[in-house]
Amino acid sequence: METEIAVVGRSNVGKSTLINALTNRKNLAHTSKTPGRTQLLNLFVMDQDPPTRAIMDLPGYGFAKGASKKAQASWGRMIETYLLEREALVMVMVLIDGRHGPTPLDVTMLNWLRSHGIPHTIVATKHDKVKSSMRQKRKRELAEGCDLEVGDILWVSAATNVNIDQLRGLTRQWLEAT
Ligand code: GDP
After folding, report:
1. Minimal CA–CA distance to 14: which of 161, 131, 158?
2. Which of 42, 106, 127, 164 would be a feasible disulfide site paired with 57, CB 3.0-4.6 Å?
3. Which ligand 1 atom minimizes the distance to the CA of 31?
4. How remote is the CA of residue 59 from the centroid of ligand 1, in Å?
5. 147-163 pLDDT, tens digit each
6. pLDDT for 131-146, tens place per residue?
7. CA of 12 to the centre of ligand 1 (A)
8. pLDDT at 133 (0 to 100)
9. CA 17 – ligand 1 centroid, Å
């Protein structure tokens, strides 16, 4: 059976960097200096012969900011249709910026996933950017903002390799669970 994990998050959350770290590839998910430049769906195939497991990089939510209302609406419809109808989808990884998330858009996304019963896991990015003296407090705030417990959220840093192996292991489990 085909299985797929989707990765969502606002622009600049560190999505491309994390996907590169998880897939052990450099510069494949293209990281952009201009927030929100990745507008296409990028599929990373994780195995071959036959290719059945993949990670789908969905466009960051912030991308549509400067776009017309029409472009924003069609972007939203594309993401919604994908998340609601993709049969291979086994998990949505919701990336939240560890420095200041969740933002209202992150909460909207979470509530939407909850309301549709779509399996999801929250990953807080840029662990290295939060001062160690502030980490406990930040972890509590981020969890509370998501209406969850601290232990429900996996904190990672692609820059310093915090919990990347653990997340890669989870990714493998999700993709192989069925
Ligand atoms: P995307 O727009 O979500 O795909 O975000 P990118 O992967 O392009 O990253 C946005 C910015 O955050 C880039 O300047 C990255 O170098 C930086 N970044 C990503 N992950 C980390 C991290 O774990 N730690 C730090 N310090 N910076 C990161």
Report:
1. 158
2. 42
3. 8
4. 15
5. 999 999 999 999 999 99
6. 999 999 999 999 999 9
7. 6
8. 98
9. 6
User: Would you say the CB of residue 60 lies under 6 angstroms from ligand 1?
Assistant: yes
Answer yes or no: pTM beyond 0.85. yes
Looking from the CA of residue 127, the nearest atom of ligand 1 is: 23
Strand partners, 3: 53
Q: Which amino acid is at 95?
A: L
- What letter represents residue 155's amino acid? W
What is the number of the ligand 1 atom nearest to the C-alpha of 125?
23
- 33 pLDDT above the threshold of 70: no
Q: How far is CA 97 from CA 79, 85, 89, in A?
A: 20, 27, 23
Q: Which of 32, 23, 13 is nearest to 55 (CA)?
A: 23
Beta-bridge partner residues of 89? 4
Minimum mean pLDDT among 1-5, 58-62, 117-121: which range?
Answer: 58-62
100's enclosing H/E stretch is none
pLDDT level of residue 38 (50, 70, 90 thresholds): very low
Ligand 1: nearest atom to the Cα of 13: 3
Burial of residue 28 (CB within 10 Å: 0-12, 13-18, 19+) is middle
Protein residue with least CA distance to atom 15, ligand 1? 14
CA of 53 to the centre of ligand 1 (A): 25
